[in-house]
Each structure stands twice: as structure tokens, then as C-alpha cells.
Amino acid sequence: MTPAQMQSRIVRYGELKPCRTAFIDAHTPGSDQKENFTIIGGGVSESADQHVHIAIPHGFNIGAAGQPPKCRNSLHSHRTAEVFFVLSGRWRFFWGRWGKAGEVVLERGDIFNIPTGIFRGFENIGDDYGMIMAILGGDDAGGGVIWAPQVIEDAAAHGLVLSEKGKLYDTKKGQSLPAGVKPMPLLTEDELKAYPEPTTAEVVPTCVARYWDMVALADRKPVKVIGETGMLRDRPGFEVDLVTRGSASDSLHSHDRPSVLMPVTGHWRVFWEGGETVLAPGDTMSVPENLSHGAMPSMTGDAALYHIVATDDPAGPTWKG
């Protein structure tokens, strides 16, 4: 594959196209300055305005959220895995029906395998614009987002209505639900009982991995972060490894399915049969299946990247509490 052919599989940080109306809380004060990005796969955006950078199926989706300080993403749940790692900024993740069951603060490089089936939200508590990168299980990302009832109610008060099929309509633009289309029903109290309320002590030890702990463990070989034998033991439909300067190798390898490289720190020279390129933090590269490739840091200093590849495990629930 030539470098020109590979360009369609590389999304540079500076070329990311944001959507500011991706979800139902896009007009709700406190959440109305979010930028959402769909990098690989269709994602779970509820807006027709969302740009998809790479549509090739990978067995998972890659997205991102960029937010200024004090901006938050409202409480929601997914039917498949949702894994975040912090690219920049300082972020508070919280969960539970009202967001009060537990919380954790993450910084650059930290990763959070958020349990499926619980309501979760997050906010930028840093001083500058921050970015978090997301991995969602499955090619269809589980059929969309399940919102806490109060999020749907708050959104309606600010002009956004979600249809029962998960499509957004903006009444401020004169839009309304088409004839015969019903609004998204609110979860009932009985349905809400099915959503667990795990504590911080229950979630963090098995779902959060700190960047510098991973770097220390990856001093000689890549560390498996998420997987059956990983630091965070789970089988969400994909595996995540962290590669560092100490564990990078100039030998070529390949996979029988597409894989993804996402630098956290440092610049990385990625080479393959036919060419090479350099990736920087925030860049995302999709490597075709069966293509021999490798990656090495191209400059001195701290260097780490996440490597993601799908597995044959179903992209189903992860919370076992």
C-alpha cells in the first residue's frame, strides 16, 4: 500500500471535523459547548450533521469529545463497551441515576473501561480545552444512546426532541416530529431499577488504569491494558495495548483484521510494506488487515501509543457487579 493510499486511513488531530449538535443535550446549558467527533465507524451520534472520517468496519468505533472547562456530557448509558482515554485536560467521570453513585478524576493517558449498563457522564474540570478519545464496542455501537429521563426532559425545555428511532429534531429551527413518529419514551421507574449504582470503590480498581502505571509495566514489552489477560480484565469485543519507547520494536507484524494506532505522547514513525508516516498525539491511523507494519518513536522524550484490535468476543455488557 502506497503512502497516498494510506492517507485515507489516517485522521490527523488538526483535521478532525466536529459536530456541535451530535446529541440531545446540545442546547442544554452546561453541555452546549461540546464538540463530538466520529473518527472510525458510524458512532452513536443522533445528528445527521455528524461527519464520519473513516467508515470501514473495524469491529469497534473510535470517537472523541472535545470540551472547554466546566462543560459536561449528560448522563447516558450504552449497550456495548465504552472506553475513554484522556488525550488532554483533566476530566471528572461520574455515574449512577443522578450521577452521584461514584466518580473518578482522570488525566492525560489514563484509561477508563466504563461498565456497560450504568448511567455515566463526564466533565472537563481542567483550565483549558480538553479532549478525550473513545472506543465503542461493535460496528453499530449497540444501537445508540440510552439517556437518563431528566436529560430528555431538560433537552425538550431547550428545543431538542429525540424521536423513538433516535433522531434529533430542533424546534428552534422549526423542526418537529414527523406525523406518526413518537418521541423517545422515558424509562419507567421499573426500567430504571435495572441500571446498577456501583460505588467508586467497586468500579475504579477493575475499570481504571493510570498512565504512569501502564508506562512502568510496558518498559520491555507492550502492556495489555484491556483484554482477557489485561490489567483491566474484560472481553468487550476488542483489546487495547499500550506501547512505549521501551517496548516498541522495529520488527514488522500484521493482524487478520484492521487495527488502530493512537499516540498519547511523542511522535511515532509508522512503517509498512510500501511506505511510512509520522503520527502525533491526537492522530488516529487504521492499519489494514494482513498488512505488515511497525511503529517506533521518531524523537526523544516520552512516547506512548494505544493499539486497538477487535476480538471475536461479543461487544456486550462488562459490568459484573
TrEMBL record:
Source superkingdom: Bacteria
Matching InterPro entries: Cupin_2
Ranges of residues in domain Cupin type-2: 69-133
Protein name: Cupin domain-containing protein
Species of origin: Thalassococcus arenae
Lineage of origin: Bacteria, Pseudomonadati, Pseudomonadota, Alphaproteobacteria, Rhodobacterales
